[in-house]
Every structure is written in C-alpha cells, then in structure tokens.
Write a structure and sequence with these properties.
- This protein has 496 residues and is mainly β.
- It has two domains: 19-315, 5 Propeller (Tachylectin-2, Chain A); 341-491, Exo-inulinase, domain 1 (Jelly Rolls, Sandwich), CATH 2.60.120.
- It is 1% helix and 49% strand.
- The chain is built from one helix and 33 strands.
- The strands form seven sheets. It has a six-stranded antiparallel β-sheet, with no helix packed on it.
- β6 and β7 (122-131) form a beta hairpin.
- It starts with a helix and ends in a 5-residue tail after the last strand.
- Bound molecules: beta-D-fructofuranose (FRU).
Length: 496
C-alpha cells in the first residue's frame, strides 16, 4: 500500500489506533495542555523534519472529547532565542498580562533553549507567547525571555497555574535537581518564592517537567492535598531509564512541604513508558477532573523504537485522584470515561472457575481492545492475560499471588533488538492485601496500559509484536482462580 494512504488512515505497522500520535515525525513531551472555549489543546515537543529528536517546535492538536484529535499547524517554532522546549499554557481570564485588550486569551509559557554566546554551554530561559484566536496563531512576547538564571544550566519546563488564595500566578520550574517556585501578578515578571527537592525523593537523574496541583483525598472527605509531579531524566546506571515520581504535601502559595519522609519515593507508573506527564489547565470546575497525559516512551530507547514514519504516542488521558491506602495517601489513575465511546464488539463472562488449559478467550483475535476483569484469588500462583500472541511471541499482563504484584512481561513481546534494555519484565511495587484482583487493560497494537485494582497499580509499556499477533489467552498457573466477571471490548480507531 502506498505511504500516503497508510498515513492518512493511520494504518502503518505499529500505529496506535486510539492513542494520540503525530501524523509524521518525532514527538516527545506533552506541552501547553489547556481547555478553552470547548476545546482541549494538546501541544507536544515536535521535530517536524525527522523521526529522531531535533530542533524542537510545539506541534498542536485539539479535541472536544480528549479521544478524537484534529491536527493543527505547528504552534510555536524556533526563533532568535532558540528552540521551543517544554512548557504549559493557561487561560488569562482577566487579562492580567495586558495581551488581550481586557478580554481573555491563551498564554503559553515555555523554555527557549539555545547556547550562551560564543560558547557551547546550553542556555535555557523562560518565555511567553499568546493567542487571541483560540490557539490558532501565536505571537511571541516582545519582552522574551521573561525569566533567566545564569547559574543553573538545566532550567526548564515551566508549568503555570492561577492560585486563588494568594491571587497570583505560580510557576513550578525544573532547576537542576530541584523544583523552583516563582510567583507573578501578570505572567511577564516573576519573583522567586522557594525551592523544593534537595534530599527528597529520587535524584537519579536531572529533574524535568514538574506539575503542581491540589486534589481532594478520598473523594468528598473534605481533606485536600497538593501533588507535585517530577520527571527524572535517564541515567545510564539506571535499569528503568526515565520515569516520573510524585510527592504529596501542602502548598501555601510560596512553599511546597512534603508530607512523606524525604527518602520516600513514589512513582506514578511501574512500566517503562510513561514520561513527562503533566495535567490540563482550566478544565471547567463543573467537570472537576484533574486529567493528565504522558509521553509513552523512555529516553533510554525513544530515538530507536522500530516505527518508520512517526515516532512516539501519548498515553491515554487519565484522571488522577488521591486515595488513603494501607501505606498512606497514594495517587490513583483511571482512564477517562470518554474512551468508552470507542467500545465495539463485546465478549463477557461471569462466575467461571479458570483452570490451567482452559482459555476462555480462545475465540477472540484482536490487537486494539480493552479488558475489565475481576478475580478472586484461589490456589493459582499466577494469572492474567497473554496478548498479541502468535509466532512464539506474547506479552503477559499478570498478577503474582505470592509477591502480591501486578506485572507486565514483554520479554517475548516482539521486536526488541533495537535496544538491549527493552525486553524484560516489570512489576508494580505496591502489594495488595486484597484477595479481589481487578485488571483494567488497554492494548493498542504497540502499547499496554494496565490499571490494576482501580488504578492503584499502573503500568504502561510499549511492545512491537508482529502485525498478525492477535491471539489472546486468559491463563492461570499452578491451580485455579475464580473469575467474577470479564468484559472485553474491541475498540474503534479514532482516526477513521
Ligand atoms: C523531557 C525534556 C524536557 C525538555 C524537552 C526537550 O523529556 O527533556 O526537560 O524541555 O524534553 O525536548
């Protein structure tokens, strides 16, 4: 088939069917996510002239439902101050910036990246652009850059939000291996407020792409906490590559205080492929959700994954919430409900005892689907799903009863030779005390997302199986397990 037709239909080998990916070329972090006038904007780190990382632009897409995306022309391109690295966007409702003649409009706050004059030393400075036409065209602010700091080389990825209690804009910014907090009345001039991070959490790599937001604990309990996301760059001595940690604490408009001991490390995902995730700004209060999306790759091998015309996709958008667990307050993630609109054919089972050799899914063949299943632990030591199976390849999404852990095993998932650290088995860290085990799984040709036990254990992993590998199996090992319920939905493509 010719390339143009393949591209228009999003049917190339490995092309995700219900995840966002650029039409062509390289993508990394999600940027500038904001909801305004009925549209969710998604910008992204984009290299429009190649399928590996290169001079960064902001690619752009919009959606009315966070599921179907319309590609728009590039939002921001490099200029005299350099490339356009990661950042955020906000609605300036009251025209605090003075850009909008008293009306509201969109302001993007991003990192300009170049080098210091007559040197190779990287220079990263924060800048603004604004749009008076719903993000269709952007004007770079004439006073750029608006925030500089010569003493810090890694100084990037501003995430800005309005803090009602103090009536100020807040910027969280990655600065070396810390997060700096700045405040502003007008988005154009920024005051340093505080720094967080030294001695806290993981410092195995450079800190990047922070986000800070408040969430209720346990729904309507009345208690609220602040959550700080911090992505950690790759470091050759790490098995995991790049990944994202989070902190839970309090924020008073100036300072973030960690609730947990400094040595506590909390990861948002226990797979390998969820990085640089940040949340949407200005989701209407009547909706009330905090929704984020991550880049579904890992700096360890992102530039060499085996796709041709494009490289990388985003995770499905996820709702984040806080829940009190045995170990303390933890982040839980669930897929946005809008994705249910993609459900097509359905296979379901109720109250079955699953024994080795009985494959309830032997009649289903597909590679874009969703499974929701609830089990009661029995004598089996391991159970779960084998997907994208055939030709001696399979990916296992399972639960290990003794270790009380979910796992994804992509050791035999398909193409893996592009990087020595790709193949492998990943497991969730939290054990569950429960004997009820719930799987919510999304498979989209080249990705696996597992939301275990109502989103307490989340794992995101890329896979590159043969195109015809569509068989699946519900398996148990060394005994039986009770299946309370299982729903399997084939999911429609968002592109056709
Ligand atoms: C994170 C990151 C950011 C930076 C961008 C450059 O993946 O390294 O810190 O702004 O990618 O593309």
């Amino acid at each position: 088939m010719n390339n143009v037709i393949e591209k228009q239909n999003y049917i190339e080998k490995y092309r995700p069917q219900f995840h966002f990916s650029p039409e062509s070329n390289w993508m990394n972090d999600p940027n500038g996510m904001v909801y305004y006038n009925g549209e969710y904007h998604l910008f992204y780190q984009y290299h429009p002239n190649g399928t590996t990382w290169g001079p960064m632009h902001w690619g752009h897409a919009v959606s009315k439902d966070l599921v179907h995306w319309e590609h728009l022309p590039i939002g921001l391109a490099p200029d005299e101050h350099g490339m356009i690295f990661s950042g955020s966007a906000v609605v300036d409702w009251k025209d605090s910036s003075g850009f909008f003649d008293g009306k509201s409009g969109l302001v993007a706050i991003f990192t300009h990246a170049d080098t210091y004059p007559d040197s190779n030393r990287p220079r990263q400075r924060q800048s603004l652009a604004y749009s008076k036409d719903n993000g269709r065209t952007w004007v770079k602010y004439e006073g750029n850059p608006v925030l500089t700091e010569e003493s810090i080389t890694d100084f990037r990825d501003p995430k800005v939000f309005w803090h009602y209690e103090t009536n100020k804009w807040i910027m969280v910014l990655a600065a070396g291996q810390a997060i700096r907090i700045y405040t502003s009345k007008n988005l154009t001039s920024w005051d340093f407020a505080s720094e967080f991070g030294e001695g806290h959490g993981s410092h195995q790599g450079v800190w990047e792409c922070p986000d800070l937001f408040q969430l209720p604990v346990d729904g309507n309990s009345g208690q609220k906490k602040w959550v700080l996301f911090v992505s950690i760059g790759d470091n050759p001595s790490l098995q995991e590559g790049s990944r994202t940690q989070y902190f839970i604490g309090n924020f008073d408009g100036n300072t973030f205080v960690n609730d947990n001991s400094p040595e506590t490390i909390l990861w948002i995902d226990h797979g390998r492929d969820n990085y640089a995730g940040v949340s949407w700004s200005d989701v209407p209060a009547e909706d009330g959700r905090r929704i984020y999306i991550g880049w579904m790759s890992n700096w360890r091998y992102a530039n060499v994954t085996p796709t041709k015309e494009w490289r990388s996709a985003m995770t499905i958008p996820r709702v984040i919430a806080l829940k009190t667990t045995d170990e303390g307050i933890r982040l839980i993630q669930t897929p946005i409900r809008e994705i249910q609109g993609l459900r097509n054919e359905n296979t379901s089972f109720r109250n079955e005892v699953v024994v080795p050799g009985l494959n309830l899914l032997s009649n289903v063949e597909n590679n874009t689907f969703e499974i929701i299943a609830e089990f009661e632990i029995g004598s089996a030591t391991e159970f779960g799903f084998k997907v994208c199976k055939q030709n001696n390849e399979e990916t296992i999404i399972g639960y290990d009863v003794e270790r009380k852990k979910f796992f994804v095993d992509r050791t035999k998932s398909g193409e893996a030779a592009f990087h020595e650290s790709f193949a492998g088995k990943h497991e969730s860290t939290q054990g569950s005390q429960n004997t009820r085990i719930k799987f919510h799984v999304f498979v989209d040709r080249s990705s696996i997302e597992l939301f275990g036990n109502d989103g307490e254990s989340v794992m995101t992993d890329l896979i590159f199986p043969k195109e015809e590998n569509k068989q699946m199996e519900l398996f148990v090992k060394n005994g039986e397990v009770k299946l309370h319920s299982l729903e399997l939905y084939i999911l429609k493509s968002i592109w056709r």
